[in-house]
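Job type: complex structure
Entries:
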Amino acid sequence: MTGDGVAEPSKSGAAGPADSDVAGPSESGVAGPADSGVAGSSDGGLLVEWLAPKAAALESRGLTRRLRARAADEVLIDLASNDYLGLARDPRVIEAAVAAVREWGASATASRLVTGTTALHAELESSLAAYAGQSSGLVFSSGYLANLGVITALGGPGTLLVSDEHVHASIVDACRLSRSRVEIVPHNDVEAVGKALAERNEPHAVVLIESVYSVLGDAAPLEALSAVALEHGAVLLVDEAHGLGVTGNGHGSVHAAGLAGLDHVIVTMTLSKSLASQGGAVLGPAVLREHLINRARPFIFDTGLNPAACAAALAALRVLIDEPTRPDTIHTTAARLAAACNVTPSAGAVVSVPMPGPREAVHAASLCLENGVRVGSFRPPSVPDGISRLRLTAHAGLSTDDLDRACAVITTAIKEAS
Ligand SMILES: Cc1ncc(COP(=O)(O)O)c(C=O)c1O
């Protein structure tokens, strides 16, 4: 989520026509030195000529994104952040991060294979794996890099990647980097996945999905996809960014579906949503972990996750284990928000409300903000189907009064903006 609480640039659909209309080389109009004044001058002449038309094109379509720094003492009802379990300001999580800084210092000091692996990394990896029912885990410095790392390390000319059309941008980018042939299949279409797998020439294949989709908020048919992958000798990679901590009483959708620990199932996750920290992980068989340590470039050539982030995620995981009903409140809040906005209840924390267009979505989000409620919005290119939406995230720990007030503000804003 961006700092403006309005745009969500981290989401993007499959191999992006929506991306390409933002920055096409044909629009570049690069100016020569004669146009840009003194070579190397700091007035930005060359870049202004290059980029200003692109900025104007975005502005004319209502798609400009802006950063707005939030204040630490801001008093808004938060329905925009990804702090699903409400743990980012939990004293136990904060204290663990502070203690880790005191013990380990402010930095991991190097990449994981040099000095960047601490006892905290090791504990976090085994704890995450145990909680999700997987045999091993490997922590990356973000969920984005976890997807990039595992998909590129499994990809290549001998691997077909079969990707759902609505997967997150990090999976899309991993596909692009992987040098694999990529088949993009319609959303949640098990038959199309089977067909792509059956018709392949590559010896290996990986099916790429999310357990709970970040834009639509719906769930993947995990059992059917696992079965079709197994039938065709393929691996199923499930991004549980929106599942772990939320679905399956917190243990995630793969665990709930009885697929945890199967040797053709891989889970990727982020530590930055339910676990209130930063970082990501790949969970799966030990042989995969070994392969990633040796082959995943975003793991090998990146500084290890900050010890404070490891400790915060571990503390949040402990809270989740000690308070197993915490995820329930996410679902009751999400159901209430969905009912207020007259949309289908979501499988996770994100309630996605279609809006007539990007301007209406931004206007509605601004009206909410003016009335003390922070919500997000999805606009192209973040939405693979091109439909702008309000993005409401349900949080554990929201009081009934706040929820009542938020529902009233949001429904009024939607009416006014549409
Ligand atoms: C489905 C999905 N995968 C991966 C990520 C990336 O995680 P991180 O923010 O830890 O890089 C996100 C975050 O928005 C996500 O929604």
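Summary: The longest helix spans residues 400-417. The chain has a mean pLDDT of 90.
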